[in-house]
Amino acid sequence: MVEQGHDESPTGYIVHHLKHLKVGDGFWTFHVDTLLVSGSLAALVAYVLYCGARSGARVSGAPSGLRAVVEWIYEFVDDSVADIYHGNRSFLVALGFSLFTWVVAMNAMDLLPLDVPGTVAGFFGAEFFRAVPTADLNGTVAMALVIFTLIVGYAIRAKGIGGYLHEWISSPFGSNPLLWLPNILLNAIELISKPISLSMRLFGNMYSGEILFMLIALLGMGFAVSIGGIALFIGQVVFGAAWSIFHILIVLLQAYIFMMLPIVYIAMAEEHH
Amino acid sequence: MTINATFIGQIIVFLILLWFIAKFVTPMMAETIGERNRKIADGLAAADKGQKDLAEATNRANEVIREARDRAKQIEDHAARRSNEAIEMAKQTAQTESARIVSAAREDASTETGRAREQLRREFGSLVVSGAARLLEREVDAKTHAQLLDKLAEDITRG
Fold first, then answer.
1. Which residue in A202, A166, A160 sits closest to A183, CA to CA?
2. Which residues contact A199 (CB under 8 A, 6 or more apart)?
3. Annotated catalytic residue within A197, A199, A208, A244
4. Rounded to the nearest 10 degrees, what angle do helices A32-54 and A65-84 cross at?
5. How far is CA B137 from the centre of its chain?
6. CA A8 – CA A146 distance, rounded (Å)
7. Nearest CA to A81 among A100, A96, A98, A71?
8. What is the arithmetic mean of pLDDT over A42-52?
């Protein structure tokens, strides 16, 4: 079960599975596995959605097949955005649409059998491979940073540079010069907490899910090394299946949250205080 | 679990995906779904209009039927009145006709009676004359006693 003859202790197994396939050094390290998986999934999502949007793009008659699925997701996102944001929402729909579909695809990598991606990557000579880009903090922080930029951008677009800066010093306490510092402090915390909570939430959920899959897999390892450990094997199958099924919910729920919160933040940023 | 340059790559991947979706996928979806929604709305509006038209047509038909019924009633009334009038007129005509016939008959009868009476008187006159002649055994000159005889006949008939 553990590839390339590493430390076969439970700790070694887990540590091995938490190592990225990387190139580079120091800050300029790239997690090749994260980039590869998320990039391919982005391409896959884009391709599938494009095919869905193109296929049978007819107006009359009920949509069918892939088209119906894509339309269903699109209308779900569109309705969600329309509830929150009252303005020209075409870009926000595209944002929510790509966030939701991409994050679902990346989260769903957690449902692959734990050792399969690593084993497959092993054929190509990769020593380590983590298949879930959203269980890599870099993956979630990257999306959160884009969303952060959009929040600030939408706020400035709605209020102008002057109005936006004025809000920094005058809200929420008031525009008295004595209150400028508290205002700025609070605004900074409020603004920074958004991308941090956003990225940490998704990362934490997927990371913990991954760890739990590893622990469940360890049951099977116990079976392999101990005599009469058939109960452990059964435990692995039962718990693995149960956690996988439950994880489907987490996969979708976290993707939904990761789609909705940016929209909420952007809608809030446009509000005048 | 460390932040490194990977996130720069992730940002680029995300921006490309976002750009692609915003440029190619959502506009197409919005367009077709919007168009379909418009079509559905149009269809519903058309159905509404059809229903309203139907109601209007039903009303109109009912009105026409009521009008026709009124008209038929009118015609019926008129016909009844006309027939009554005709019957009345025929009755009247018949009455005058019968009166005329009766009076003509009566006139005929009286003429006939007069004629019969005249004849009877004449015959009675000659009978009287021949009777008297036989009684007197001599010929009564009818011409000389015509006046007397006439008077006599007249007395007889009258009296």
1. A166
2. A137, A140, A141, A143, A144
3. A197
4. 100
5. 86
6. 40
7. A96
8. 92
To the query of whether residue A201 is one of the catalytic residues in this protein, the response is yes
Are B6 and A46 inside 8 Å of each other by CB?
Answer: no
Residue A232 three-state SS: helix
The complex scores an ipTM of 0.87
Catalytic residue, candidates A98, A138, A201, A244: A201
Q: Using CA coordinates, name the residue in chain B closest to A133.
A: B10
> How many CB pairs (< 8 A) connect A and B?
123
Contact between chains at A141 and B3 (C-beta distance less than 8 A): yes
Confidence band, pLDDT 50/70/90 cuts, at residue A226: low
Non-local (6+) Cβ contacts of A81 within 8 A are A89, A92, A93, A96, A263
DSSP A57: -
Position A59 scores a pLDDT of: 62
pLDDT of residue A116: 84
Task: Give the pLDDT score at A248.
Answer: 93
Give whole-number Cα distances, A146 to A132, A150, A151, A191, A198, in Å. 20, 6, 9, 13, 12
Asked if the model's pLDDT at residue A152 lies above 90, the reply is yes
Respond yes or no: is residue A199 known to be catalytic.
Answer: no
Taking Cα atoms as reference points, which of A210, A232, A230, A30 lies closest to residue A132? A210
Domain locations along chain A: 10-135+199-269
Query: Across chain A, what does the average pLDDT equal?
Result: 87
Locate the domains of chain B by residue range. Answer: 50-158
pLDDT at A8 over 90: no
Q: Give A75→chain B minimum CA distance, Å.
A: 9
Catalytic residue among A38, A107, A199, A205: A205
